[in-house]
Amino acid sequence: MRVDELRTPPLALVCALGRADVQPELAETLRTRATPPLVLASHPSIEDASRVLVPRLRKRGVKQHLRTHAHGASAAHDAHARGVSSRADHANADAASTSATSNASLSSHPDIRGALKRDWLLKHRQSKPAVVMALLDNDVLDGSSDARAQLTRSLEKLYGAAHNAGAYVCVVCLAAGPGLPEVLPEDKASIIRKLLNIENRSIVTLNTATAQGREHGWNKAMKVAQELAIKMYGEECDRMTAMVDDPGCPAVLRARYAFKAGTYAEFRQDWVTATKRYRTAYEALPDVRAGMTTQDIIETLEVSEVLHVKLCVLLLHSGSPTEAVHQIEKHMRRWSNAASALGQEALPTFHEWRARQYNVFGDLLEHRLPAPAPVGTPRTHLPAFYFHAAAQCSIARRLAFDSVAFDSTAAPVEDVKVELGSYVGQLKIAGTENTRLTTEQYMAYLRVKDMRETISRETIELLTKAHDHYKENSAGTAGGRSFASLIAELANEYLHAGDYKSARKLFTTVAVVYRRERWTELLCSVLLHLKTCAKALRDDEAYLSICLEMAALNEGAASEHAPAAFIAAYAAMNEPRGGGEDEDEDDVAPTITCGDGHLDRVFIHKAGFSTLDCVPGEPVKFHVALMSNL
Predict the structure, then answer these.
(1) Which of 199-213, 443-457, 555-569, 586-600 is the least confident region?
(2) pLDDT in tens, 178-207
(3) DSSP E strands: which ranges in 381-528?
(4) How far apart are CA 78 and CA 92, in angstroms?
(5) Partners of residue 605 on adjacent β-strands
(6) What does DSSP assign to residue 423?
(7) Alpha helices in 79-144, H assignment, sequence order
(8) What phi, psi does 122 have (nearest 5°)?
(9) Cα separations (Å) of 393 from 328, 348, 356, 463, 471?
């Protein structure tokens, strides 16, 4: 599941079969007049029902689910050698279902492959309709016996396909001329009711001859489709909730069923129920503990991300930003101990996950809260706060990546191709149905999937995003020092990325603030980075000036760098410089520029005339005194 799929509530899907010529008008009606809008999947013929309506594998209880999976897993694993009877399989499944429901990890139950199917939500949005709308010609109902027989066979197939797919059916009977009554005549309606097992209110007549008739008919069809969709999603929500409440339900299935119940509640816009079900699913997830494998921990983190995003979206949609802030704080605290349970190779992935949590929450806040925020808004309610937190997690990711850096001769080789698995948080070997990676393959993948340049680029984007948002929407919470610190972090990331020109430009901006405020220790750290930039850019004059300025910083912790800076400045002044053939020796001598005031600590200079009486046209002496503080 992509995060983009989770940010907006799902819309009910209606499948239209037949009369392709009128389906664009139907789609427009469902999209613009229905509240909430309905999505239409169009198919030209009723015969397409068996192809487009995929049967659903509905489990009527937890035990049935476990038995089905246990049977399938054992058959796939060792069908030729299995000598255990089905009765024994069922007994084992019964024992597993009634065991403790608080499992150690999402994969601790042998018969359950994962928590959330990766494409489940997308399928329900695009290919698993709640309602099937059959568009019939009234002429066919009045036609020959052969035409009616063909229609009967098509409707029988439609009923079977819709029933197996768990979708409700409604019918729109269209006529091109006047004479079609508001209610379909009983002789025709009884045939449709019997074949499709529907009520009279699910049969709509529509006269296409007039605009008024079309509008009235489509509006009625829209209301019928809405009612049926709400009914279908409500029943599915209740069914999933009943399975969640089963005392024998394992934790991984409780999380799955509660997530599905929350999604069905969202389809019918029951926000309160959806929030409760998503919270139940989130709390059902097992906590990270020592002994869990790296794959289990990362799968748990990614599943928790799906549920957390759904909770935050609904809380913000309901106008509860404070509760949403509490949710992100609780979310990050709950999984903070994962770092100690993961191996060193997995720490960059963990920090990448942390950065994504903050970045997504900042985006959600940005689209839900007013901008600019009123003065006095808490900093934790500002998007920039979370963009900055995401950037700091990304910096931690880079540091973790550097700590596990390896020589090119010892670089691990990814011996298998890897792709996303069928379940959220899982990976599989490419080209297989769902073959999970071994521990060695998984750790090798984690070491080769990242590139340092990519991490630095993402960090720079997050820091820039945080800076721009603080600049436009700080609500009075960000002062000069906060901006300077943020720019310094951005400059530092440019420095690590090897972009020395951009780094020097930003560090120079920060140094001006630190000099003005007399923040000596902070200034010293910035000068150290400027010194590195000047050396990398071969700017000898800037390098000398920076060394001299550092040598004059003799306050607090900055004084530790003063002796080394003085030695570096002395070496720079005495370093031989050879000019070109046409250059004098003086032209390549080091130059110290004091015009911008950054060397005020290095030199004290006084100047004045030797007399108070000056005669125009007569020479007068002008004295300059320069004293070094080094």
Answers:
(1) 586-600
(2) 666 777 778 888 888 888 999 989 999 888
(3) 418-420, 427-429
(4) 17
(5) 626
(6) B
(7) 86-97, 120-126, 138-141
(8) -65, -40
(9) 15, 10, 9, 11, 21
Q: What's the count of helices (H) and strands (E) in the chain, helices before strands?
A: 24, 9
> Strand order in 39-43's β-sheet?
39-43, 13-17, 131-137, 168-175, 203-207
Q: Distance between CA atoms of 589 and 396, rounded to whole angstroms? A: 43
How many beta carbons lie within 10 A of that of residue 11, not counting itself? 18
Please report how the helices 452-472 and 480-496 are oriented relative to each other, as an axis angle in degrees rounded to 10. 160
E-strand stretches of 381-509: 418-420, 427-429
Q: What is the pLDDT of residues 20-46, one digit of tens each?
A: 999 999 999 999 999 889 999 999 999
Q: How far apart are CA 153 and CA 161, in angstroms?
A: 12
Average pLDDT, the chain: 83
| The pair of three-digit structure tokens given for residue 269, joined into one six-digit string | 């816009």
Please tell me the distance from the alpha carbon of residue 430 to that of residue 432, in angstroms, as a whole number. 6
Name the DSSP letter for residue 42.
Answer: E
% of the chain with per-residue pLDDT over 90? 44
A 10 A CB-CB count for 354 gives 23
Nearest to 190 by CA among 217, 160, 155: 155
Contact 466, 382 (CB under 8 A): no
pLDDT over 70, % of the chain: 80
Q: Does the pLDDT at position 479 exceed 70? A: no
- In this structure, are residues 252 and 115 in contact, taking their beta carbons and an 8 Å threshold? yes
Start-to-end CA distance of the chain, whole Å, equals 62
- Give the residue from 504, 474, 478 showing the smallest Cα distance to 491: 504
* Nearest alpha-carbon partner for 135 in 278, 14, 301, 275: 14
Name the pairing type of β-strands 13-17 and 131-137.
parallel
Q: What is the DSSP letter of 422?
A: S
Say yes or no to pLDDT of 481 above 50: yes
**DSSP strand pairing (427-429 vs 418-420):** antiparallel
Model pTM score: 0.82
Is-contact 456 355, C-beta < 8 A? no
What is the Cα–Cα distance from 288 to 295, expressed in whole angstroms?
12
| Chain centroid offset of residue 550 CA | 44
Q: Look up tokens 């001299």; give the residue.
A: 548
Phi, psi of 508 (to 5 degrees): -65, -40
Neighbour count for residue 613 (Cβ, 10 Å): 7
| Phi and psi, residue 594, nearest 5° | -110, 10
Residues in CB range of 385: below 8 A, 6 or more apart = 362, 379
- Dig out the tokens for 497 from the structure: 């990325």
Pair 338, 347: CB distance under 8 Å: no
What is the arithmetic mean of pLDDT over 298-307?
Answer: 95
Statement: residue 449 has pLDDT above 90: no
Widest distance between CA atoms in the chain: 127
Helix (H, G, I), strand (E, B) or coil at 595: coil
DSSP letters, 75-86, are HHHHTTT----H
Buried b / exposed e along 109-147 (16+ C-beta atoms within 10 A): bebbbbbbbbbbbeebbeebbbbbbbbbbbeebeeeeee
